[in-house]
Specification:
By secondary structure, the protein is α/β, with parallel strands linked by helices.
């Protein structure tokens, strides 16, 4: 498999086990996942690597996911990178806020099934390739 064809995804998440789980699920489809252990590290990695997609947790100790999202959207070079929110904070009001107000690309509630994650990621990355 051609390494350059790998899709780059950054998972901004303060739980290393969750990053590992996401990496395992997505690597089967040839998607390379890099983990960032919090909002500040995540933003730095996004600026350096310019991934095709970001998986973003909302509840993190250093900088929460909405703050990361706001900073990305206010940066012209980052605002077009799609974001899927992956969070345990998944009341329907949060989902509605995320998708309709903040305009995140998708919203996945933890715990999620591997299929649910794959479907969401493929839907977003599929849009980018077409």
């Amino acid at each position: 498999m051609d390494k350059t064809a790998l899709k780059q995804v950054i998972c901004i998440e303060d739980d290393p086990e969750m990053i590992e789980l996401i990496r395992l699920i997505l690597s089967r489809s040839g998607i390379q996942v890099q983990g960032a252990a919090g909002g500040e590290e995540g933003l730095r990695m996004v600026r350096e690597k310019r991934p095709e997609l970001i998986l973003l947790d909302l509840m993190m100790p250093d900088m929460d996911g909405w703050e990361v999202y706001q900073q990305m959207k206010s940066d012209e070079s980052l605002r077009d990178i799609p974001v899927i929110v992956v969070t345990a904070k998944a009341q329907s009001i949060d989902k509605a806020l995320g998708i309709h107000i903040a305009k995140v690309d998708d919203y996945i509630a933890k715990p999620f099934s591997p299929q649910e994650l794959m479907d969401s990621v493929e839907k977003i990355l599929g849009k980018k390739t077409s």
